[in-house]
Amino acid sequence: MSRSRGLSDAFTKFEDKPKSDDDSTPTIKQATENIRNRYIAKSQKPTVEETHTRSTFLFRNDLQERLNKLAEGKRGFKTFFLNEAIETLLDVYEEQAEKDWVSFT
Question: Which domain holds residue 72?
Answer without folding.
Answer: 55-104
